[in-house]
Structure formats: C-alpha cells, structure tokens
Design a protein that fits this description.
There is one protein chain. This protein is of the alpha+beta class. It folds into three domains: 10-161 and 234-313, Rossmann fold, CATH 3.40.50.1820; 170-220 and 554-588 and 592-675, no CATH class; 347-534, Galactose-binding domain-like (Jelly Rolls), CATH 2.60.120.260. The strands form four sheets. The chain has a 20-stranded mixed beta sheet that branches. Strands 27, 28, 29, 30, 31, 32, 33, 34 and 35 form a nine-stranded antiparallel beta sheet that branches. Helix 2 (101-115) packs across helix 3.
C-alpha cells in the first residue's frame, strides 16, 4: 500500500475549511499534530483561537463530537485547533503519563505557536471535557500570556480526591480500569494517510516505550507531590483568567463546578443532570445550549463584546426531584435554579440525627451503640464512576445495597426539603482492626418503595485526619470523623423519606481493607448528617439547544453492544461484576477510517473474604481503511494479599492477522500503603 509523502488532505465547508493535519513544532524537535477549523476570513482578519488538547486521536477518536462543536465556533469567528498529546494520534514522541509536566509544558508551547500565527489575533481560549477539561485548568494555572479564558467540563480541582484513582484514601476500581484503557489507547499507530510510510516505525516505537500507568498510580497511595501537581485546588490564585466550569450530577466529576465558583477569582459554574459528555448532546435531559454558552463566553473574554456574561449567576444547577432509579433515564424531572454568588447566604445547614430504631430525626436521640460488618459484595448497585450512558452506568435501585448496610430513615416528609451542596456526615466510630473503610449514601425512598441514590461519599479511616500522612486506627478506640459526600442538587418531595445508609464495604467501587472489619457507631448527638438546605421556590430559565441531535451521522458497519450484570455463585460465595462495552464499527466520513473499541471487565469478591478481591480487563482497538488494518489488545490483571497489590499486563499489536509486537509486564508486587 502506497502513502503520500506529505499529506495535503483538505475538506472545505461553507464559511470555513478543515485542515486535517498541521504540524506544530516544539523547541526540542518534536512535532504535535493539529486538526484546524479555519474560517475563510482568518487570513485577512486574524481571529481568536480555541484550543483543545487530548490523547484520544483527533481524526477518528473525537472526530464526531469535534465536527459538532468546531464548525459552530468557526461560523462565529473562531479558529478551532484540536491537538493530540505527544505520543498519541499523529503527534511525535512518547506518551508518558496523564497531566505530566511535559504535557503541560507542551501545551504552553502550543498556545504560543497558535498566538503567533498570521491567522490568530494573539488571543487563545482553551476548552475540553475530562482530560481536556483537566489540562485546560492546569495550563491556565501556568499563566501562558496568550491564554485569555477557559471552559472546563467534567473536570477536577483535586487530582487525588476527585479523579478516577483515589477518594478520601480509598482506592477506586476505576484506577485499574483506566490503566487498561490507556494501555490500549496509547498503543495505536498514527494514520498512514497523514504521516506516510513512517507510520509503522512510529507505531513500533510507541509499543516499545509506552508505560504501564498502573505501576505509577499505585506507587502514590497518599496525597503526595505527584497528585498535588496539576491540582489547582492547591493554589487557586494561580488561575487568573475567566473559567466556565461545567459538569453533571450523573458524572463522577461533579464537585469541581461549585468549588471553582467559590475559589476562583473569575469563574462561573454549571451542574446539570448529565453523564460524562458535552452538555448539548448528553443524557439525561434537559440539555443546555452549550454552543451558545461557549460562544457567548468566547465573545466576552476573547473579543471584548459587552454581552453581559460577567453578570451571569455564579452557579447554575439543575435540582432533581422524584428521580427514579429507572433502567434508562432519558429525562430527569426537576428545574434549574441559580445562585448569584458563591458561597451563597441562601443555603443553610440543617442537621438530622442518626438514632436507634433506624430513625433519622431532627433532634438528637439517646446515646446508643450499633455495630456493622457489611458483606464484601455490598455496593454492586453503585454504577460507574463516570457514566457515559444513562442506563446501567448509573446507580440502580439501592435496596440491595441497603440490605447490607446500617440505614436510618426519616418519617414521611410533610413538606419538600431541597438541598444544594455537599452533605457531610459526623460520626463517632471505632473498628476492631487497624484499617477499615466507611461508605455513606444519602438516598430518597419513594412512596412506591424504590430507593434512589442522591449522593455518596467514602473514607479510608486511616485518612480520617488527612490524606498526606495516614494513621491506622487503634482497634476498639472510638474517634470522631467527618465524611463529605459529593455535591448534589435534589428536592425530596412530600410523602417521600430520606435515608442515610452506612456500610463498611462498597464493592466494586472501592478496594476493601486487608481484613473483615466490624464497625461500631455511637448514635446520639454526635451522629448526624448536615444537609445544605435552600428555600426552593425559585426557577432559572435555562435555554435548551434548538437541535435535537447535534452530532453528525457516522456510518455504523457493526452495531454497538453494552452489557452490565452481576453473577453470584452460591457454592463459592463469590460475586462477579461484569461489564462488556463495544462501540461497534464506525466509519468516519471523508477519509474512510473505520474503528471499533471493545472492553470486557470482571470484578470478583467473596462475601466473607476481602483478600479474594481480583479484577481482569481486556481492551481491544481496531482500525482499518481499505487493505490496511491494525488491532491492539491490552490485558490487565489485579489481585491482592494483606501486604501487597499484584498487577500484570500484556499489550499485543497486530497488522492484519500478523502479530507484530508483544510486550508483557510480569506480575509486579506493590506494597499496600494504609489501604
């Protein structure tokens, strides 16, 4: 198969053209690849540029959503610049880690390059979701001169406590899953149509040098300098430019918007009902007119147009009400509200006390002691950390998990109670072992019996006084602790009940401690949940997108498949949580690249043995055009004993059906650090 020496592929559209591959030179000789949406007027009249920076492949990985977003920006007078991180897509070099110092430094170089192009007026905005939302805020904190504003979606201000790796000292299951994903993602080759005959040499080099990221992430089990790097919450003052920060209640990254509104000097925040996707095409509905929001943001901060954006409320949030744990959630009932300033004086804490007889009271009950040892498989209704679909990804009916938990119910509500913020639970607890976890859920009990999860939080008790210097508990010694649950916006309706559920395990979401733990809780005046209560009479008018389906149609040659289920073996006592996700085979129009991704995960634990915890993950990526076809496969495994985690991985690469490379990381032991 012959390839061009220098790609010149160009796709023209009304009002702008798409440059499929532009090289951005870096000071050390590497080049990063960019896909650029160029308004036709840009060379006559330089324009501001919008920069998005990801490892997910600009030409096939994010092409569909890019072809929804950047044409709208181009028509509004902005150059769109979508860049692949070093060692991914067509970009030179090796991928090293997420949000590495080199990644952020490269991003600053790219911003300088964009600002110095003849088609740019020197002003750059940065935008992205998830990885691109993270590095947008992190690069803003480095203060490159040309970067004037940022839009960050599905993001974090604390890489240790609000990312896929750890949460309050608990090791999240997604730490393992994401490592397997990146092993496969980072093993894909550049597009031969764009780089020519060197594609294979580049591919083999990547396969030889790519890291096994789980080894790094498990080497840092407490909040050390590795996690502080890139966490803008360590010094909010470094972000001086305007930031629009957005997420959704169904996303794992829901805590960043209000934190940004409170702590950044010039920020606006939005939390809607969505999963981990852009809010103009995410589910559950209602969506928002994100493209209109974004263009208004850029018009104000990049073009200086006086459009009133600076007068928007500090925080807009969608208040869910009567949200049922349905099998699929197309639209959540509720309404939009707004807080003019953050923190707002309109929200007040109200305490509800955990009392004997499983009651949740508005006055303290008598002091009592309760004990609990949840089965290790309690938590299988937890859903995904960052859901991408409004079905099995979301938490299901909580009654099964509640059966393995200590629960406290209010009476039927005579009046609605509306909350917006982060509930926090105060307890006095002891455990019979040095290490143990607590998981807390705030639930809504519907009159028909279904139970919906409103918010959740976890704590590794060794991290009760902070995440930098964990200390084991003294067995039998009672100590006061506080657990902050996730941000939420919810209205408990009249006739419903509120429930606080407490368990000592939350599988597969968090890693269990080395031994089965008996948790003792002292009820009474020192055991309460503090709810952030608001009056709940206002309505904010939030525009929805005019276009129902903004994503362009891509031909699908093979259908997608998504399955999630739990198997329980009544002879061994084991539970298996299974996930299969297959994107189907999708063809990108214009250049005919076909791609398909499939992953298969299994999480296993025995109800009476925390050391039975193990996981396996297989991830496959296919790419094909004409008679050119490649496939990469990653396989990862995870198990533990009382002292160590044991991890392994293999990456195989195929050209056609021929195995061209295989790399194996034999089982590696990593000591457990207070987990």
């Amino acid at each position: 198969m012959a390839f061009p020496d220098a790609p010149s592929y160009e796709m023209k559209k009304a009002g702008f053209k798409v440059l499929e591959n532009e090289w951005i030179p870096l000071a050390d000789g590497r080049r990063l690849s960019a896909r650029i949406w160029m308004p036709n007027t840009a060379k006559k009249e330089p324009l501001p540029a919008i920069f998005e920076y990801l490892p997910y492949r600009k030409r096939d990985g994010t092409a569909q959503r890019d072809d929804s977003t950047y044409p709208a920006f181009a028509e509004a007078g902005y150059v769109g610049v979508r860049v692949d991180i070093s060692g991914t897509g067509e970009s030179d070099g090796d991928w090293d880690d997420e949000y590495s110092p080199r990644e952020l430094a490269d991003g600053c170089e790219v911003i300088e390059w964009i600002a110095n192009q003849e088609w740019c007026d020197g002003k750059v905005g940065m935008m992205g979701i998830s990885w691109g939302g993270f590095n947008g805020l992190q690069i803003a904190a480095l203060q490159p001169a040309a970067l004037k504003a940022v839009i960050s979606i599905g993001t974090t201000v604390d890489r240790y406590n609000d990312d896929i790796h750890y949460k309050n000292g608990c090791l999240l299951y997604s730490n393992f899953f994401w490592s397997s994903t990146m092993l496969c993602y980072a093993s894909r080759p550049p597009d031969p149509e764009l780089v020519g005959e060197t594609w294979r040499e580049t591919w083999l080099q990547r396969l030889q040098t790519q890291p096994f990221p789980l080894t790094t992430w498990l080497a840092h089990q407490r909040k050390d300098d590795y996690w502080k790097h890139g966490s803008i919450g360590e010094n909010y003052q470094n972000v001086k430019i305007p930031a629009l920060v957005i997420s959704g209640w169904a996303d794992g990254y829901l805590n960043a918007p209000p934190a940004a509104a409170i702590n950044l000097a010039n920020a606006k925040a939005i939390n809607g009902p969505w999963v981990h996707k852009y809010p103009h095409f995410a589910l559950p509905k209602p969506r928002i007119d994100f493209l209109g929001e974004a263009i208004g943001w850029w018009d104000k901060w990049l073009k200086g147009i006086d459009n009133g954006v600076e007068k928007l409320p500090a925080y807009r949030a969608y208040i869910l009400e009567n949200a049922m744990p349905l099998l699929r959630r197309e639209r959540e009932p509720g309404r939009w509200v707004a807080e003019a300033v953050m923190p707002t004086p309109e929200i007040h804490e109200r305490h509800y006390y955990l009392a004997s007889n499983r009651e949740l009271l508005d006055i303290p009950g008598r002091t009592r002691v309760k004990t609990l040892a949840s089965p290790q498989d309690c938590g299988s209704s937890c859903g995904e950390f960052f859901p991408l679909k409004p079905d099995g990804d979301l938490p299901s009916d909580q009654r099964r998990d509640d059966s393995g938990s200590m629960v406290f119910d209010s009476g039927k509500l005579h009046q609605p109670i509306e909350i917006l913020g982060r509930p926090r639970l105060r307890l006095k607890v002891s455990i019979d072992k040095p290490l143990g976890n607590i998981a807390v859920r705030l639930n809504d009990i519907h009159p028909t019996g279904e139970v919906s999860r409103v918010s959740w939080g976890v704590l590794n008790l060794a991290h009760r006084n902070g995440n930098e210097f964990p200390e084991p508990m003294t067995p039998g010694k009672s100590e006061s602790i506080e657990i902050e649950l996730n941000e939420c916006g919810y209205r408990f309706m009249r006739g419903h009940k509120m429930r606080v559920s407490i368990s000592s395990s939350y599988w597969p979401m968090i890693m269990p401690p080395p031994e089965t733990v008996i948790l003792t809780i002292q009820l009474g005046p020192d055991a309460f949940i503090a709810l952030p209560v608001r009056a709940g009479v206002d309505v904010y008018e939030q525009a929805e997108p005019i276009e129902e389906n903004p994503l362009p149609e891509y031909r699908k040659h093979q259908p997608e498949l998504s399955r999630r289920w739990v198997e329980r073996n009544f002879q061994t006592g084991e539970s298996h949580y299974r996930v299969i996700d297959d994107t189907g085979e999708i063809e990108v129009p214009g250049h005919g690249m076909r791609s398909r991704h499939r992953h298969d995960e299994r999480w296993t634990i025995a109800a009476d043995d925390p050391l039975s915890y193990r996981a396996s993950s297989s991830y496959t990526c296919w790419m094909q055009r004409g008679d050119w076809s490649i496939r990469t496969e990653s396989e990862s495994g995870f198990r533990c004993d009382a002292d160590n985690f044991f991890i392994r991985a293999t990456v195989r690469a195929y050209e056609g059906e021929d195995l061209v490379h295989e790399r194996e990381w034999e089982e590696i032991a990593i000591p457990r650090d207070h987990i």
